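Reviewer comment 2.1 asked that we show a complete input and output for one of the modelled complexes. We chose the adenosine monophosphate case, as it is the one discussed in the main text.
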Amino acid sequence: MDIANFIRNIPDFPNTGIQFKDITTLLKDAKAFKATVEALADHFKSEEIDLVVGIEARGFIIGSPLALFLDCGFVPVRKEGKLPATTLAKTYQLEYGQATLEIHRDAISPGQKVIIIDDLLATGGTTRAVCEMVEELGGNIVGIGFVIELVSLKGREKLTSYPVHSLVKFDI
Ligand code: AMP
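Response of the prediction step:
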């Protein structure tokens, strides 16, 4: 199955000039959704992973079933102010302005094998910030997975220390 066919392009969302890759059309198709999660599980299954770290919000949708496939736990990285216990926060630069993400400080034990999951790799700034948080907590990042990679934005160049796997590559 070619899951690229299930991804919808929405021009000028949320801002003029952005081609938004909409995965809701993939998620609502049972076979395409399952094929997506299975493809990521196939790629990472040999690693004996302890935790899937998913990035709010679409990283939760893909990362949670992936954790079940891989028989491991799931850890959410959330936008600031959402997690109830003591957190580690990281502020990072966006194209315009900045954003802050948080993770529970007790979410990862030192040495645990972690993969980080999001729906899409663009400039890589978001995932890079999450890598720094996971490593600050002592996690061992054994891989990073995306459904979509926007190759022209060269996000991989911010993640060169890690094995990065994406299922579908688009130029923009
Ligand atoms: P970046 O930090 O630039 O790699 O941006 C990645 C985050 O922004 C991911 O959580 C994506 O869901 C979201 N994102 C960035 N660009 C797009 C796009 N063109 N379509 C859909 N989501 C995007």
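The first helix runs from residue 24 to 27. We note this here for comparison with the apo prediction described in Section 3.2.
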